[in-house]
Amino acid sequence: GTMMDNRFATALVIACVLSLISTIYMAASIGTDFWYEYHTQSPAENVSEAGRSIWEEFVSKDADEKTYTDALFRCNGTVGLWRRCITVPKNSHWYSPPGFSFFPPLETDMTTNCISFSLSDQFAEKYIEPGNHNSGTDLNRTYLWRLQFLLPFVSIGLMCFGALIGLCACACRSLYPAIATGVLHFLAGLCTLGLVGCYVAGIELLHRKLPLPEDVKGEFGWSFCLACVSAPLQFMAAALFIWAARTNRKEFTLLKAYRVA
Q: If pLDDT is split at 50, 70 and 90, which confidence band does 247 have?
């Protein structure tokens, strides 16, 4: 019997490690601001005159989607699930005085400033024309945005619940609950995939409405990649949990039958 037990123990240990890594990745991706990044070819010149006002608009409570997206385009913005950030010059008097225009600006210290999306921002409706309240609600984008906010929490919640069941299983020295843990991890993986899908679709639809300017490149950042890696890890953990529990159960039943015979 020990040979079998070792195999299951190994599978369970690997599954737990995968589960732990995917939870860490998921938490890191929710907490960081690099889901999507914009790169401007000419950031400094763009901002020089208008830096202050862009920043004030970007931060203001009633910044609509169009206002802050334009600022993201112009100032090397990055967007997370919770926050949006732009890179602006440190102080407002950093451009060179008119007489010395051939000198490069001395103060090109750039600083990254972030502002959080409030809960009401997360659930606010998106409009068919971003920034225009009269254009009607864009249901697709509104629901994609709400889902991308909720799904990561559902995913982490399912995995934590799975971990609790796993701990109970260890306490009871039984492998039956591992099936439940596996199923929960599988559902968590589906949520993570859903999150990634919603995010990509949301960005795609936004850029159809507000196309990127000529000199701006947009790309998915590393926070987004962490979420992408997290999903397959969750599925692998789920498969191992379910396999270990089921195979162990079969062998146990066979052994019983053999003993009875």
A: confident
Res. 95: pLDDT tops 50 = no
Helix (H) or strand (E) holding 82: none
Q: Inter-axis angle of helices 176-209 and 222-260, to 10 degrees?
A: 160
Distance between CA atoms of residues 80 and 223, nearest Å? 8
Instruction: Encode pLDDT of 151-170 as tens digits.
Output: 999 999 999 999 999 888 77
Residues of the chain by 3-state class (helix, strand, coil), percent to 5 = 65, 10, 25
Tally Cβ neighbours within 10 Å of residue 175.
19
Q: Which amino acid is at 181?
A: T
CA distance 58 to 64: 9
Which H/E stretch holds residue 194? helix 176-209
Question: Quick one: average pLDDT of 131-148?
Answer: 92
Contact criterion met (CB below 8 Å) for 90 and 47 = no
70 in Cβ contact with 46 (< 8 Å): no
On whether the CB atoms of residues 217 and 39 are closer than 8 A, the answer is yes
Q: How confident is the model at residue 88 (pLDDT cuts 50, 70, 90)?
A: confident
Q: E strands of the chain, at which residues?
A: 36-40, 78-79, 83-89, 110-116, 216-220
Positive or negative, the CA dihedral 179, 185, 187, 190 is negative
Could you give all domains of the chain from N- to C-terminal order, each with its CATH number? 1-91+109-252 (1.20.140.150)
Please name every residue paired with 113 in a beta bridge, in sequence order, or none if there are none.
Answer: 86
CA atoms within a 13 Å half-sphere pointing along the CA-CB vector of 257:
6
